[in-house]
């Protein structure tokens, strides 16, 4: 059979308790192909998804509803310590020691069932992708192929921290796991405390440093421990290097099986997913594939052509329908030998080329197109060095012998607000539901009423009343005195940047420790829709200067001394059109995407006060601050 059309009904067995090697039982739903209400004996291939987000949620049930009619058994499982599975208190969000072995045991349990053809493929996004990798490290004999979507591969660099700073969306993510934690499922008071914290998330964010017992997470000790692992463990130490935290240093243990790795340019794990693919393509003999779109976290399944405030055109849309169809084509090839896919293994969406006008939906039209490639990074990449100049210019000209430095004051009580970028989201529970009738509001889960206080993705870099932390009169970020702007002249011809840029700064500070941030921006010229032009953020990152030389060992700065620091930016793919400018913004904060550096040099997450820092960037011949842009011939 070709299985191109749905051929089967479904018989669902819910909450089958599957025993792990230590006796802990995990709640498992099994969707079996059926006819006339009876399950068929098979054998069939299996699609497995293991999740901490409730296997009974519609986004997981639709996996079974899609794959099973096409001749797959679908197995959905709650992770240890989540929902209906056993293992109370063993879920720590990131550092779950049992995820890999539980995955192994589940795969081999599937292979032992009479309905199994002994080939198992794994799917899932975010945490449900991360557990695929942990499972692949243990090489279950019957794990045949994987499709991890938007997965981190290094808990230190990709989840808890970035450039030494804490990623605050991970603080919020702990609440997403706390609201339905087993530890408080019979404790209404503790549940209310979680929701109250989410109502006051803005106040919590500005109340740092956090103290044990301060937040509602204290009712879930394993999650509160995770918070302080994130917040206090600034150095890369033996905790972070463990196999289940750092996949990169353990990739040689990964199973050699076909894999597809997917993400978006505005996903916080874009650097992880592209790195995962590159590592597997290099070390494995089995085929590997990469898909990178113009999406934010899990945006691949979205049905809109826009991300953040920017429209990329209808061709950018995958949606659930295409997402599942592409997955089925991949798994058909490896789980039932339908024929291997030929052609280039890398699919990237090159952003840009749009009209630059406002769409009917009020979005900036940036456009873009898909392109197939044979490798990542691209072999034909040409790196261009753009130097910073004191007049705010960004050019390929060498810096002057005595070009003066530029300084600004970073005040942690008035940080640069986050306007777009690569983050999963930071959400609050509103005090009221606006126009929603209160009678209906009380019947809805609070999760359905959460709303973002920051907008992930590309957004015009201008403050507004909707920007958390922005103050009237609202201004362009480029006009803030604590932001240094370097931009090219209008480009004479199109220029494609595809890959990961690196910003090098020569800096000094009045503080023993501070942050420097860098943001790459596509600055479009003004038109009637956008009188200021449109400053579209592409990628950004940070370096906490105490980690400028090593993640393992802090080194304070001597106030006033000059140091060289580097800020690697996440990967992107963007066509800078003729007439646009390439812009780099340098500052020392991006809040609440990143936690605030208090400038005191005190132990991480334990500062007692905050002080302003006078930060300086040098750009003379002997201190050539620059950005290396990976360009591709147009």
Mean pLDDT: 95
Overall helicity: 10-25%
Might you state the CATH topology name of the largest domain? Rossmann fold
Number-wise, the strands total 29
User: Would you identify the CATH H-level superfamily of the largest domain?
Assistant: Alpha/Beta hydrolase fold, catalytic domain
Specify the CATH architecture of the largest domain: 3-Layer(aba) Sandwich
Largest sheet: 11 strands, mixed
Can you tell me the residue ranges where pLDDT is under 50 for at least 5 consecutive residues?
435-443
How much of the sequence lies in strands comes to 25-35%
Short descriptors:
11-stranded mixed beta sheet, globular, alpha+beta, 634 residues, 18% helix, Jelly Rolls, 7-stranded antiparallel beta sheet, 11 helices, Rossmann fold, 3 domains
Protein architecture, described:
This protein folds into three domains: 9-153 and 247-373, Rossmann fold (3-Layer(aba) Sandwich); 158-232, no CATH class; 382-422 and 457-632, Jelly Rolls. It contains eleven helices and 29 strands. The chain has helices at 58-67, 99-111, 127-137, 155-160, 169-178, 188-199, 201-205, 221-232, 270-283, 319-335, 438-441; strands at residues 9-19, 25-35, 38-39, 44-51, 73-78, 116-125, 143-149, 161-162, 165-166, 259-264, 288-293, 306-307, 310-311, 346-351, 364-365, 368-373, 382-388, 394-395, 406-410, 427-428, 451-452, 484-487, 495-509, 515-524, 534-544, 563-576, 581-587, 613-618, 626-632. Strands 1, 2, 3, 4, 5, 6, 7, 10, 11, 14 and 16 form an eleven-stranded mixed sheet that branches. Strands 17, 18, 19, 23, 26, 28 and 29 form a seven-stranded antiparallel sheet that branches. Strand 4, helix 1 and strand 5 form a beta-alpha-beta unit. Helix 2 packs across helix 3 and helix 5 runs antiparallel to helix 8. The model is unreliable at 435-443 (pLDDT under 50).
């Amino acid at each position: 059979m070709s299985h191109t059309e749905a051929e089967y009904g479904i018989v669902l067995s819910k909450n089958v308790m599957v025993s792990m090697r230590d006796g802990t039982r995990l709640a498992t739903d099994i969707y079996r192909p059926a006819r006339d209400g009876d399950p068929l004996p098979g054998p069939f291939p299996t699609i497995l998804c293991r999740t901490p987000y409730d296997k009974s949620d519609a986004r997981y049930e639709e996996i079974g509803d899609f794959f099973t009619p096409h001749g797959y058994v679908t197995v959905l499982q709650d992770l240890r310590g989540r929902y209906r599975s056993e293992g109370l208190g063993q879920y720590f969000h990131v550092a779950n020691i049992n995820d890999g072995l539980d995955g192994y045991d589940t795969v081999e349990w599937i292979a032992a069932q009479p309905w199994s053809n002994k080939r198992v493929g794994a799917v899932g996004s975010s945490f449900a992708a991360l557990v695929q990798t942990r499972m692949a490290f243990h090489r279950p004999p019957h794990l045949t192929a994987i499709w991890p979507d938007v997965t981190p591969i290094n808990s230190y660099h990709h989840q808890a921290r970035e450039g030494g700073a804490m990623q605050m969306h991970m603080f919020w993510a702990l609440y997403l796991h706390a609201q339905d934690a087993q530890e408080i499922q019979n404790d209404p008071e503790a549940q209310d405390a979680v929701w109250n914290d989410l109502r006051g998330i803005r106040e919590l964010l500005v109340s740092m440093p956090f103290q044990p017992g301060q937040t509602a997470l204290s009712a879930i000790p394993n999650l509160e421990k995770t918070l302080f692992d994130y917040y206090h463990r600034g150095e890369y130490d033996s905790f972070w290097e463990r196999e289940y935290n750092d996949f990169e240093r353990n990739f040689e243990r990964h199973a050699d099986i076909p894999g597809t790795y997917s993400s978006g340019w505005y996903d916080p794990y874009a650097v992880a997913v592209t790195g995962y693919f590159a590592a597997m393509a290099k070390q494995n003999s089995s085929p590997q594939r990469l898909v990178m779109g113009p999406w934010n976290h899990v945006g691949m399944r979205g049905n809109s052509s826009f991300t953040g405030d920017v429209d990329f055109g209808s061709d950018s849309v995958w949606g659930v329908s295409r997402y599942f169809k592409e997955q089925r084509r991949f798994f058909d090839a490896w789980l039932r030998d339908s024929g291997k896919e030929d052609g280039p293994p890398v699919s990237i969406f090159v952003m840009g080329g749009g009209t630059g006008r406002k769409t009917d939906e009020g979005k900036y039209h940036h456009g873009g197109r898909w392109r197939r490639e044979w490798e990542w990074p691209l072999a034909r990449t040409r790196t261009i060095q753009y130097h910073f100049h004191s007049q705010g210019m960004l050019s390929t000209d060498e810096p002057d012998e005595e070009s003066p430095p530029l300084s600004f004051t970073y005040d942690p009580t008035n940080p640069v607000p986050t306007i777009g970028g690569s983050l999963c989201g930071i959400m609050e529970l509103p005090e009221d539901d606006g126009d929603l009738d209160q009678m209906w509001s009380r019947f809805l889960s609070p999760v359905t009423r959460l709303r973002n206080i920051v907008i992930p993705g590309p957004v015009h870099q201008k403050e507004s009343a909707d920007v958390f932390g922005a103050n009237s009169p609202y201004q362009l970020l480029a006009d803030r005195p604590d932001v240094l702007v370097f931009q090219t002249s209008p480009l004479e011809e199109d220029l494609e940047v595809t890959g990961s840029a690196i910003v090098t700064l020569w800096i000094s500070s009045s503080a023993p420790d501070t942050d420097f941030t860098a943001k790459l921006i596509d600055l479009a010229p003004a038109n009637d829709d956008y009188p200021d032009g449109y400053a579209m953020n592409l990628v950004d990152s940070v370096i906490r200067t105490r980690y400028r030389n090593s993640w393992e060992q802090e080194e304070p700065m001597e106030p006033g001394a000059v140091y060289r620091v580097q800020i690697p930016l996440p990967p992107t793919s963007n066509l800078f059109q003729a007439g646009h400018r390439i812009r780099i913004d340098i500052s020392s904060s991006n809040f609440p995407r990143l936690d605030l550096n208090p400038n005191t040099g005190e132990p991480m997450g334990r500062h007692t006060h905050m002080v302003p820092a006078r930060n300086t960037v040098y750009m003379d011949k002997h201190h050539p601050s620059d950005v290396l842009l990976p360009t591709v011939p147009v």
